[in-house]
Design brief:
Blueprint: H1 53-65, E1 72-75, H2 91-102, E2 105-109, H3 123-126, E3 133-136, E4 148-151, H4 153-161, H5 174-189, H6 192-213, E5 217-223, E6 226-231, H7 242-254, E7 260-264, E8 267-273, H8 281-297
Parallel strand pairs: 1-2, 2-3
Antiparallel strand pairs: 3-4, 5-6, 6-8, 7-8
Helix pairs in contact: 6-8
Length: 298
């Protein structure tokens, strides 16, 4: 329910963070599973005693609401636009089991998590699963617009035999393709996944120490160099600190630090911190100090 897979007509049908009101209907046959948002469990439960109630609820919904002819389960390894929501480590193992049981393909959207950001080449490695289809972009082109869809040989042959055609003006364009290959080589040769894991651990620890100083920080979470800092007015009620988050981002900007924030539209107030994979310890220290000084000004 906090997914983001795009804003074009088909993709927005599977996007539930925003863009659901004011027009429609969206593409039929799409159902949303409750988000595995342990910090704000919609059922008021705690992991692991919850037994993945969010997944069980979604399972019951599709069993009751469909004919059973199911295509796929689409998910982000970490829900970035939804607020850097990190599922429990064995969540996707259960998702894959459910997909196999119900005859669904598992599609992972690794636009924001692929090519080293989480400390592994792909997010699926973090969660010990192999999807049937993987979508990648963003980091693949290092700033150049390029995307790729990766699937199994069996699926590729099947859709070809069925006459599936997808054509765009820049399909297999040599320029972005060359950039993508160079980007992948750089990630591998410079060992950027390993670097992201090391730098991410340092960043996470630094931000966690910051949370001990400022009660406005409700939770620090993430993997590798994709970190979320959830801001709350009160750690007991967990009321989102939207106004404080807005001011904090502006104060950081004034000091030279750009931070994204997820807020409004029913979302919580979460800082999205995703530095370059080549970030240094000195740069992390400087960024954390800017956040600290800005928090003191609130």
């Amino acid at each position: 329910t906090k997914s983001f897979h795009g804003s074009t007509a088909g993709a927005v049908s599977t996007t539930f963070t925003f863009g659901r009101k004011g027009y429609g209907p969206t593409m039929p046959g799409v159902f949303a599973f409750p988000t595995p948002y342990c910090y704000r469990c919609s059922a008021g439960l705690e992991y692991p005693d919850c037994d993945f109630a969010c997944l069980r609820f979604g399972e019951e919904t599709i069993k009751a609401s469909t004919t059973g002819s199911l295509a796929a389960f689409i998910a982000e390894p970490i829900l970035s636009a939804g607020g850097i929501i990190v599922p429990p480590e064995d969540y996707f193992v259960e998702v894959k089991r459910l997909c196999d049981e119900l005859g669904m393909l598992l599609i992972l959207d690794e636009a924001q998590t692929g090519y080293g950001r989480l400390g592994k080449m792909f997010g699926c490695e973090i969660f010990n699963i192999v999807p049937e289809i993987m979508a990648t972009s963003k980091s693949l082109g290092a700033g150049v617009p390029v995307a790729a869809t990766t699937t199994t040989e069996a699926i590729a042959r099947d859709i070809e035999a069925k006459g599936f055609v997808h054509i765009t003006s820049h399909l297999s364009d040599p320029l972005p393709s060359a950039v993508a290959l160079a980007s992948v080589r750089a990630v591998q040769e410079e060992h950027l996944p390993e670097r992201a894991a090391k730098m991410g651990e340092y960043l996470n620890r630094s931000l966690t120490e910051l949370s001990e100083e400022f009660k406005l920080i409700g939770e620090v979470r993430g993997k590798g160099l994709l970190i979320g800092v959830e801001l709350v007015k009160d750690r007991i009620t967990k009321e989102p600190a939207e106004d404080e988050g807005t001011r904090l981002v502006d104060l950081c900007m004034d000091k030279g630090l750009i931070i994204g924030i997820v807020r409004g539209m029913g979302m919580s107030s979460v800082l999205r911190i995703a530095p370059p994979l080549v970030v240094t310890i000195e740069e992390i220290d400087k960024a954390v100090e800017i956040i600290r000084s800005s928090l003191r000004q609130l």
